């Protein structure tokens, strides 16, 4: 497209990427080998004759291509999440998190990402005995290495609470992050909310977000109704909404998002892969622009959804044919909606 060079060169901020969602099939396989882990398909039981557990375990994945083929066929958020959590099983030590983070930063720099706010799921690692300190150590090493190599990306790390687990578990983990001083030290920034959405309304997390002194954000309106977006704003006082695409079903909500200058962190290829939309053209980009709702364009779980951030920009351009001015507006909103210090924003634009 005629704007391709502009899209490549736009200085990008990524606000919606899950660290664990950047685990490429090739790295996943190499870490599985290193850590002696057999990867099993969570949704396909092995034939009883070949499984020592009488068919209760899934068929083993045999290659990165075998995994990638399955990734091309998700049916819903929860279907994807089952594979996403299998990926967690290969992440064991700080070296693993360093490799994961470094691979993402190098890939993001290729797309001219200048600032990345990266989610991770502490509760998804604790059951294997992997502490947040291990994640933070590996992440920090990768960021320092990227810095030393002049990649030019500033980075924040944001813990997300997992909605498929009991609220009490989220409360305990959040407490421990506060108690151990990770927010006060600046090692962690803000608080997010993700995983299964249906039947897990934001108000369940009100007491936790009330105690979060930092910025808050919540996945809402991905599969859930517009009411969940409204509730994340009123009950959790978040300043951003992750996805938020279902806001387009309510003119009143669009007006509220515009008035409160809430940033929606939209992920078009994610919505396509998880069947929230049938085509990228069904992501309500034009409705957001017309209503004056701010949004950024992001990759979510790029290793699973077939595209990194530039691929998402290009898919939007192919579907909507936006103008140069509209793209500059999107890039500006992304910088302004970032949680980096003001001085850094000036450097990016
Ligand atoms: N939605 C909810 N939870 C998630 C996602 C998502 O798109 N990606 C990783 N965790
Ligand atoms: Zn997400």
TrEMBL record:
It is an enzyme of class 3 (hydrolase). The keyword DNA-binding does not apply. It catalyses: adenine + H2O + H(+) = hypoxanthine + NH4(+). The active site is at residue 222. It is found in: Cytoplasm; Nucleus. The record marks 243 as: Important for catalytic activity. GO terms for cellular component: cytosol; nucleus. InterPro entries: A/AMP_deam_AS, A_deaminase_dom, ADE, Ado/ade_deaminase, Metal_Hydrolase. Belongs to the metallo-dependent hydrolases superfamily. Adenosine and AMP deaminases family. Adenine deaminase type 2 subfamily. This is Adenine deaminase. The gene is AAH1.
């Amino acid at each position: 497209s005629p704007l391709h060079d502009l899209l490549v060169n736009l200085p990008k901020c990524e606000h919606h990427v899950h660290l664990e969602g950047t685990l490429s099939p090739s790295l996943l396989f190499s870490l599985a080998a290193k850590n002696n882990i057999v990867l099993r398909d969570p949704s396909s039981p092995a034939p009883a004759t070949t499984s020592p557990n009488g068919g209760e375990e899934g068929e083993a994945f045999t290659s990165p291509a075998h995994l990638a083929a399955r990734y091309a066929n998700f049916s819903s958020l929860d279907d994807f999440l089952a594979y996403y959590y299998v990926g967690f099983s290969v992440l064991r030590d700080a070296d693993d998190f360093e490799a994961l983070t470094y691979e993402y930063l190098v890939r993001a720099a290729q797309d001219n990402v200048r600032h990345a706010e990266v989610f991770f799921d502490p509760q998804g690692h604790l059951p294997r005995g992997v502490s947040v300190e291990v994640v933070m150590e590996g992440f920090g090493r990768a960021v320092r290495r990227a810095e030393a190599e002049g990649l030019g990306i500033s980075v924040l790390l944001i813990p997300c609470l997992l909605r498929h687990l009991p609220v009490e578990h989220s409360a305990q983990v959040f407490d421990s992050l506060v108690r151990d001083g990770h927010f006060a030290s600046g090692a962690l920034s803000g608080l997010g909310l993700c995983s299964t959405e249906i039947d897990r309304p934001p108000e369940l997390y009100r007491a936790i977000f009330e105690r979060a002194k930092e910025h808050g954000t919540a996945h809402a309106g991905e599969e859930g109704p517009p009411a969940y977006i409204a509730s994340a704003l009123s009950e959790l006082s978040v300043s951003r909404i992750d996805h938020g695409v279902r806001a387009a079903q309510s003119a009143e909500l669009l007006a509220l998002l515009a008035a409160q200058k809430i940033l929606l962190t939209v992920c078009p290829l994610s919505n396509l892969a998880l069947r929230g939309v049938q085509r990228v053209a069904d992501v309500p980009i034009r409705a957001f622009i017309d209503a004056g709702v701010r949004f950024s364009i992001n990759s979510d779980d790029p290793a699973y959804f077939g595209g990194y951030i530039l691929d998402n920009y290009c898919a939007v351009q192919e579907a909507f044919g936006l103008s140069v001015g509209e793209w500059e507006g999107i890039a500006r909103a992304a910088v302004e909606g970032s949680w980096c210090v003001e001085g850094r924003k000036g450097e990016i634009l």
